[in-house]
Amino acid sequence: MHAVEKKVRAFVRVKPTAQFAQDVIKFGPDNKSIDIYIKKDAKKGVVNNKQTDWSFKLDGVLHNTSQELTYETVAKKLVSEALVGYNGTIMCYGQTGAGKTYTMTGATAEYKHRGIIPRAVQQVFKAITRSVDSFITVRISYLEIYNETLCDLLSTMTSSGASDVQMAIVDCPQGVYVKGLSIHSVSDEEDALNLLFEGETNRVIAEHTLNKNSSRSHCIFTIYIQSRFRVLSDVRCINSKINLIDLAGSERLSKTGSEGRVLKEAAYINKSLSFLEQIIIALADPKREHIPFRQSKLTHVLKDSLGGKCNTVLVANICGEALHVEETLSSLRFATRMKWITTEPVINVTYDSEGTVKALEKEISLLKQELAMHDSLVNRSLVTYDPLTDVQVAEIKSQIHKYLQGDIDEIDIMNFRQVQEVFRQFKLIVRKQADEVETRLRSKYVLIDRNDFATISAAQKVGIVDVDHHLLKRQDVDIIPTPVPPKPDEKKSRTSSLRPKKEGTKSLFSGRDLAAHLPSKSQVIIPTKSLDVKEKARNEDTAHIDAQPSKPVSKENSQWSSSPPSRAVAFEQFKKECGSEINRIFKENKSILLARRKRSSTVARRINIIKQEIEDIKKALEAQRQERSQQGEYVDEKGRLIIDEKEFLLIMKLKDLKEEYRCSYAELQDLKAEIQYCQHLVDQCRNKLISEFEIWYSESFLIPTYVQNALKSGGNIRPGMIPINRVMCLEEDEQDRFERMQEVMLPAGPDSVSFYKAKMKTDQKHTYSRTMSSLKLMHKKPGHITAAGKDKALSFLHVT
Ligand SMILES: Nc1ncnc2c1ncn2[C@@H]1O[C@H](COP(=O)(O)OP(=O)(O)OP(=O)(O)O)[C@@H](O)[C@H]1O
């Protein structure tokens, strides 16, 4: 979490007094500075170097300030930040009787004079009442450090009056905590205040000359706040604590007039406060690496409350009388040093995995209930959604084997888990078979590394490796895949996996299929032996076939199991039988195309001849014209040129040829277009003929008959092997299901959906508010419900 650097805030609070030393203590107009002036001591001579003026700048001076304003200035922001996850510490420091306890706890007799602790408690519970999206729990502890001893002010006392739990300060990655200190859950302000008052009565108090009820110990009242809220399915947890510390009074021993026990206490107090001061000085020095927190119990406990990741505020309580000016100076120095300390408050968020699991479990149970409701509405009462038991898995496995052997035609599918298990079992079977094939291949062939060129070329020389593909040469053996166990009556003809190849037949196991079973692309397989292997395989297979129950072999099966005819032979057969019609059309189109092509070449030839004739006549005409012009031209009475008969005939001939050329050219263009179209038809027919033949060839010779039968309509292979009504159930999405349900359930059809939805929402709202009110009634304080109650109530909202 991103941390922003802050300084510790320090305030000074002046205890009201009738003898306020106006000449000694002066407040600045900004209400943040305070000046102290001490007159030179005349008794110490004319030359007196002792400093007489001090100026202190703080975050605020609280002079004649009410408890309420003090809280607003000092604590309110810190408490509201604690409610969003920042730790906070407020500490009152000052001489005995300066008003620390008054500031921190206040006068318990009067509400108006209550101090920071009761006000903080009130602010926390007010915020809880207002919060809606998180569940906040509050706990309280009250620790006292008296003469370097840890005391639990809220512990259950033994008959001797002492707590039976040994306490110790423990450092852990999350911070410092006091082992053995009791932490009490409180459900409201009253509960928390009860604990405060109970703790107050247990504090060690002594009377001395400066304060009738002087607290002789350091007291730390801690409010632990935990808010849980959901972000999607995560439950997040924000933990924070507010330490409210009332330090024991710092006093000069000579002044208190103490002796005996009280004197000893004062010595302890002064020692721990002096350690606290050293810590403050060390914390304020950025170069200091080691901070001696463990020097005293007080500093150790405050390790993560001082200048750590928390908001820290100090209130320096001072007395306004001139008599106490030395103590006042000391307190103001302490406060100023505190201000130098830098803190980096961070929000303490954790992910509550336990809470998340609980929330998800609740969600699952709700969804199960909803699913059960849907199932009962669509009469699917037998469906369960629990994980499959071992017995159920075994049952599915046995069903699959029966199905593959053809003993049953369908596998009953009840729910999605079962579908998954069926697929899993199929996968296992396929994997097992692949392993078996590989094992068999390995037993017959040797693997050569693809980069081992010497061995490959040696193998090629003896002719046992295919030069192009580096694969097994197939003249030796043929490998037939056995994808599914055959039916008992088919076993005899199909169980052999290796057998001698017959002349003119091709392998049914393609290079790709084979490669799928090869261990690596960088390896080459060659047969260990050639003829020996063939012989051995034949023997093995015969032995295997003999072991199977012998059943008559059907005609179709024998067709499938024997070697298929070559494609050329099969194609001739196909053209005569199934493909005869398309073959006829193909032939017709082809002959039309041929005729058009012939005609086209004839026309083209004729055009060329015409062109030549035109050229010749043009030349003859030119010669005629030249001859005429040499002899002198004759014109008639109208001035028209007179030509002889030969020239006239040539002109007529040229005209006829040009006409013929135009016609032939047009015919050639038409023929070209026709040829293009015919060619397209012929190509189409050819493709159709080939694709039809491929299908026919595969169905007739490559696919086992029982698979062909199963594929026919009425056969037992259907999508997903799931009964069709269940397929629908599985494939429907939420929307489809909802719409179908509407049609079944809603008498007035889908138009009434909005009406029913609105009614349902209203019903749920009422249930929710009824729950809320009953929870409020159950609770002793009206208008307040517990976190658990809210949780329960909100679960109704989840349904909505
Ligand atoms: N701001 C104030 N307004 C009114 N009365 C005050 C104020 N500050 C202190 N007093 C009163 O002064 C007396 C001494 O105050 P308080 O007990 O709070 O001092 P203290 O600093 O806690 O002393 P000690 O360290 O000895 O416990 C109390 O009677 C208290 O009511």
TrEMBL record:
Record keywords, A-Z: ATP-binding, Cell projection, Cilium, Coiled coil, Cytoplasm, Cytoskeleton, Flagellum, Microtubule, Motor protein, Nucleotide-binding, Phosphoprotein
SMART domains registered for this protein in UniProt: KISc
Superkingdom of this protein's organism: Eukaryota
Single GO biological process annotation from the record: extracellular matrix disassembly
Keyword Phosphoprotein listed: yes
Pfam families: KIF9, Kinesin
Coiled coil residues, start to end: 607-674
Comp. bias intervals (Polar residues): 555-565
Domain Kinesin motor: 7-341
Subcellular locations according to the entry: Cytoplasm, Cytoskeleton, Flagellum axoneme
Family statement drawn from the similarity comment of this UniProt entry: Belongs to the TRAFAC class myosin-kinesin ATPase superfamily. Kinesin family.
Assembly: Interacts with HYDIN.
Protein name, per record: Kinesin-like protein
Lineage of source species: Eukaryota, Metazoa, Chordata, Craniata, Vertebrata
